[in-house]
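Why does residue order matter? Because the sequence determines the fold. Keep that principle in mind as you read this record.
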Amino acid sequence: MKAELAARDRDLRLCLLLGIAAWFLFLDHVPHNAVSLLTMRNFGFSGATDLFVFIGGYMAAILYGKMMLERGLVVSATRVFKRLWQLYATYVVLFVIYIELIGYVARRSRAPELIGEFNVTGIVDHAIRTLIHGLLLQAKPLNLDVLQLFIVLMAFFPIVLFGMMRRPNLTIAGSFGLYFASRLLDWNLSSFPDGRWHLNPFSWQLLFVLGAWFALGGASQVHAIRTLQGLAILRTAAWLYLLFALVVTVAGKFPQAGIVPDFLRDIFPSNDGENLAPYRVLHFLALAFLFTYMVPRSWRGFRWQALQPIMKCGEEWLAVFCAGVFLSFAAHLVLITGPDSLALHVLVSFAGISIMIAIAYYVSWSKQQDHKPAFRTRGMTELPKEGRFAK
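Structure:
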C-alpha cells in the first residue's frame, strides 16, 4: 500500500483536475456569465463542485493514509486537525472581508440588490449575529458553500481514514447508507437567517468518501475491473450514459424545443444539487472511469506548456479558490455596470483566470523561497577568523 500511495501521490492528473475545477468554479460563480456555458455542468448532470469534492477526498486519503501507515492514527489525526484549522482560519478571514466588501460596495454603488443576490441580507440589520453565525458555518454567503462543505468533511475525515485503513468496503457501505438515509429522512443542516445548506453534507460526503475509497481501499477492485473481458462493454455503457446526460441537460435549457419528453426532465432535474442526486453521482463516476482510461499517469501531455498554468492552479488550489471568490464578485460588478456584450464577458473571464494563474505562481514561488537557506554553510566557513560567524 505504501508503494501504491507513493505512486498516486505523484499523479499529475490530480493537479490537472483540481486546476480545471478551480477555473470552472470561478466561471460558474459569476452570475449571468456567458462564458460559464462552457463549464462541465452545462454538458451533464455533474459539475465542478463534484470534481472538487471527489479529488479533495482522494488527495486527503493519499496524504494522511501514508502518514497513518508510517506514524499511526494519532499523529495522522492531529495533522488532519491542523489542516482543518488552517482551512477554518482561511474561511473566517475570507468570510469577514467578503461580507464587508459586499455591504460596502452595495452602499457606495446604491445597489442594495447585491446584498440579497449574494445572500448576506443579515449583515445590514444584524451584523454581529451574522458574524457569529458565519463563524459557526451557518451563514451562507454566495460562493463560500464549497469551502464550508470541505471544512465539515475534513472534520470527520479521521474516522473515515481509520475505517478505510481497516475495513474499506464496510466504510464505503456506511457512507452509502448515510447518503440514502439523508435523502429519505430529509436530513440537512440549517443556515442563517433561514433555509438549509445548499450543499447537504450528509449527501455530499459520499463523493468525498468515494474519493478516499478509490485512493485506498478500491485499488484492488479497480484493478480487477480493468482486467475483465467486459471492460469494453463498461466503456460503451459509460459513453452512452454521458451522451444521454448531455441530451437531457442541453434540452432542459430549451424546453420549448420538445427534444426530451417532460417526464424525463422531471426525473432528471438539473437543479438537484443540494442532496446530490444518484444520477449525478453515476454521471461523475462515468466521467472518472473514462478519464482514467483515456489519460494514464504517464500521459505525455503533462509536459505541454499550455497545461502548466492549469496544473499550477491545482497545486495551489486553496489560494486560487479564495482569489476566485473575490474575483467572481468583482466580475459580477463589472458585468452589471458595463455594456451587455459577449466581448465583455470573455474579457472579464479571461482577466479573472489570468489573475488566478498569477496568484498560483506567486504562492508557489513564495513557498520555494521559504525552503531556501538564508546563507550557505560553506560560505560561513570561508569568512575571516575575526568575523562574527567564525565559530
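Residues 1-45+298-371 form one domain.
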